[in-house]
């Protein structure tokens, strides 16, 4: 699989996250909510955690943030709200009106934008957060990494959450509230799922890895934009919570991996 960042055009914004299943789950503050692949596999989305306050794993991310922080796909806003409450310069972006409304209700700044839209202060953000599986935005990790390289300042820091398994996959998925889709679903859209090793492959040559860690079963990697040399970050250890998982929807429904 190619690890080049070359892309003819950026992916179309994943507007499906504005669909009713996602918006309803955020308004309720709870699931169930899944990404459902065409072959029946499900990725459980931890809406309750997203709508709560930062946990230990989140705090390990917040502690590593530098300068102005852009939270890409901020969802209901727990991270940008925590940064803002601590006096940090932070902005959340999300394509979901429900997500932006939830974030601003917490007192944090947020805009309804795709990361591929023109953004405020492009090229001046010091940290970009891509948490809760958002490395999958657009289904093209190379294009997303290339875009984030332009959003960040030279030498800026990208902190991404990766899958807790060694995986590098693309899939057409739908948002559903019920495993079998009986509760309604959004339209299909492209998504990607990467483990840490796959992320590092896609990040060459424009990024350098500065840190990798896990907390409670959630995995993270910090990458620095190589536009300008920067002093390496000191290694940090962290304790080890599983936020997302692929699940078999029904016990009598066999599934094959992608």
Automatic annotation (TrEMBL):
GO terms for molecular function: methyltransferase activity. Gene3D superfamilies: Vaccinia Virus protein VP39 (3.40.50.150). It comes from the Bacteria. One of its GO terms (biological process) is methylation. The keyword Methyltransferase applies. This is Class I SAM-dependent methyltransferase. Residues 229-258 are annotated as: Disordered. Keywords: Methyltransferase, Transferase. CDD domains: AdoMet_MTases. InterPro entries: SAM-dependent_MTases_sf (IPR029063).
């Amino acid at each position: 699989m190619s690890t080049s960042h070359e892309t003819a055009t950026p992916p179309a914004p994943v507007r499906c996250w504005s669909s009713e299943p996602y918006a309803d789950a955020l308004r309720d503050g709870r699931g169930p909510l899944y990404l459902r692949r065409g072959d029946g596999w499900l990725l459980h989305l931890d809406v309750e955690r997203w709508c709560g306050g930062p946990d230990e794993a989140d705090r390990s991310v917040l502690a590593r943030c530098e300068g102005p922080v852009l939270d890409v796909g901020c969802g209901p806003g727990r991270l940008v709200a925590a940064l803002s409450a601590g006096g940090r310069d932070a902005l959340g972006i999300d394509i979901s009106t429900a997500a932006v409304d939830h974030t601003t209700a917490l007192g944090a700044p947020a805009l309804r934008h795709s990361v591929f839209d023109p953004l405020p202060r492009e090229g001046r953000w010091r940290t970009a957060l891509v948490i809760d599986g958002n490395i999958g935005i657009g289904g093209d990790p190379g294009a997303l990494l290339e875009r984030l390289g332009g959003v960040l300042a030279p030498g800026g820091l990208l902190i991404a959450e990766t899958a807790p398994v060694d995986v590098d996959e693309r899939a057409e998925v739908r948002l559903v509230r019920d495993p079998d889709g009986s509760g309604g679903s959004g339209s299909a859209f492209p998504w990607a799922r990467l483990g840490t090793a796959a992320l590092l492959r896609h990040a060459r040559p424009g990024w350098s890895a500065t840190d990798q860690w896990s907390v409670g079963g959630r995995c993270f990697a910090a990458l620095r934009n190589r536009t300008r040399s920067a002093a390496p970050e000191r290694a940090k250890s962290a304790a080890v919570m599983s936020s997302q998982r692929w699940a078999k929807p029904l016990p009598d429904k066999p599934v094959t991996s992608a």
